[in-house]
Design goal:
Helix content is 42%, strand content 16%. It is α/β, with parallel strands linked by helices and 318 residues long. An 8-stranded mixed beta sheet has the order 1-2-4-3-5-6-7-8, sandwiched between helices.
Length: 318
């Protein structure tokens, strides 16, 4: 599917920039209603549901390799666009993690499934952790990449100067309007630069970066992409933030696979490791040597192999 480039002077639309094809696969695009909003999903395969949640500054397309791998392995693989991103609704509010997690569990119900294996990267990982705590009956298994448990993230950002510096973009997002304008300037150039800078030696292609540049330039996407990070920082000293942090004390009680790139410059290995203390179930930590913040795109074969093998393991070890 061909989409107009940001340089053409015509802002891209969700229909042209988001509903993309995967070469060699018949992806189904559709919208589902959940938690008072409409969400775009890309679906491939049949079998037990695996729901994939993207991070920043991306959308469902980041999981293109895993969609095909999971479908080939006998799963119903569905990648959703989070609220405010890609082809999903851009609502004026609702970007706190508790509500975003309800989006995720609502999509599981709307897909007609009793539960799902959740796979989340970056912000999607943060929401996957949250959904597993808030709605444990709807989460069959949990896979998180490049993101510690929310309580671990909070502690690292506040007490570890190295992690606070590595996540400096989160602090920068607290300014009004300036981050949005920077993200959409020059045809979304900054989104491409961030993905390249946060990747390891296996950098993404220029064609892949252009897909993300187009998507971030869809009107209101930049603002909605930043709003969850604004909540995460501004709520640190507010009652809703304290309440969320207390709620996340409840342990995760489903088998959990935690994946991380050893060269991740955004989320330090030291910050992510140790999240298993919040899991009262089999927990497996896997560090990918030589990969950065996007292991599922930098080495999709290694990532997908680890993911599928773990999902098929009837008794994942601790």
């Amino acid at each position: 599917m061909t989409a107009p480039t940001p340089d053409s002077g015509t802002p891209p639309t969700a229909a042209t920039a988001v509903r993309l094809d995967i070469p060699g696969a018949e992806v189904t695009h559709r919208d589902v209603a959940a938690n008072g909003a409409r969400f775009h999903v890309a679906e491939l395969g049949d079998g037990p549901l695996v729901l994939l949640l993207h991070g920043f500054p991306q959308f469902w397309w980041t999981w293109r390799h895993q969609l095909t791998a999971l479908a080939d392995a006998g799963y119903r693989a569905v990648a959703m666009d989070l609220r405010g991103v890609g082809g999903s609704d851009r609502t004026p509010r609702g970007y706190d993690p508790a509500n975003l997690a309800l989006d995720v569990t609502g999509v599981i119900r709307s897909l007609g499934e009793p539960d799902a294996a959740l796979v989340g990267h970056d912000l999607g990982g943060y929401l996957a952790w949250t959904a597993a705590v808030m709605r444990p009956k709807l989460v069959r298994r949990l896979v998180v990449s490049s993101m510690p448990h929310p309580r671990r993230w909070r502690s690292a950002m506040l007490s570890d100067f190295a992690q606070s510096r590595a996540g400096s973009h989160v602090w920068g997002f607290q300014r009004p309007w300036i981050p949005e304008r920077r993200l959409q300037a020059d045809g979304g150039a900054l989104a491409g630069e961030l993905i390249r800078e946060w990747s390891g030696p296996l950098e993404p292609s220029e064609e892949d970066l252009e897909v993300y540049r187009r998507a971030i330039c869809i009107p209101s996407t930049a603002h909605c992409s930043i709003e969850p990070y604004r909540w995460m920082v501004r709520s640190l000293a507010r009652p809703d933030g304290y309440q969320f942090n207390r709620r996340m004390k409840r342990p995760v009680r489903v088998p959990t696979l935690h994946l991380h790139g050893s060269l991740d410059p955004v989320m330090r290995t030291r910050s992510a490791a140790g999240s298993g203390e919040y899991v009262e179930a089999p927990y497996r930590w896997r560090l990918f040597d030589g990969l950065g913040h996007f292991p599922h795109e930098e080495d999709p074969v290694a990532f997908s192999t680890e993911l599928v093998n773990w999902l098929k393991d009837p008794e994942p070890d601790r």
